[in-house]
Design goal:
The chain has 185 residues and is mainly alpha-helical. The chain has one domain. The chain is built from seven helices and six strands; from the N terminus they run H-E-H-E-E-H-E-E-H-H-H-E-H. The strands form two sheets. It has a three-stranded antiparallel sheet with strand order 1-5-4. A three-stranded antiparallel sheet has the order 3-2-6. A hairpin with a 3-residue loop joins strand 4 and strand 5. Helix 2 packs parallel to helix 5. The termini are far apart.
Length: 185
Amino acid sequence: MIGIVEKTQKKIKAFDYMLQLFEEWRDDHKTIKGKPLSKLTALKLLFLTAAPKKDKGDDLLDIFDNFYAMPYGPVESDVYNVIQANTLPSYVAEYKIIKRREGGEDNSSEYAGSEFENIRNAVNALRAENEKLIELNAFDLVAITHRWDSWNRAMDFAEFMGQLSAKMPKDSIRKDSNKRFSLTD
């Protein structure tokens, strides 16, 4: 059985690889090429990537398994904590942005194997849903995630309990009948 620390380390490596894929996606769009992602954008893209795109479709919720509904949408708590601590392997988290470490090692050789192939497939599936997502600002992505029933149910529960956040069960995300990947669908 994988220990909590090892599982969290695998999750952080998976997110680090996902950030690399987001950069590649971003660099395919001339208007935003080279522009760093905001922390909020990265967290919203993480949710939309991890969630299943179709009913009973593949997802990354067994890797990214700690989503909480918060006022600005779903947040993977373990990833958020690593961003806040600025301990991502290949990226620096500054005030509001995440950018590649200057002079940092190229970790791309570490990103081989089926788990990383699943991450690439999930990012590609999100791109297939809406190629323009990468161009949206963080608050447009927040608006999209606010349309998910799983987020709304968890926030309703948080408000009922007098809290600002509530756990989003994996099953709730998987079975969400209101999966949205754009502002207009």
